[in-house]
Amino acid sequence: NMADVAVQPDGRSGGIVIEDDWPGYSLDLFSYPAHYSGDLDCVFIPHGVIMDRTERLARNIMDDLGDHDIVVLCVLKGGYQFCADLVDRIKALSRNSNRSIPMRVHFIRLKSYLNDRSTEDLHILGAEDLSFLAGKAIVGTGKTMKTLLKHVEAFRPKMIKVAGLLVKRVPHNWACLPDYVGFEIPNRFVVGYALDYNEYFRDLNHICVISESGKIKYKI
Question: Does Acyltransferase show up as a keyword for this record (predicted)?
Answer without folding.
Answer: no
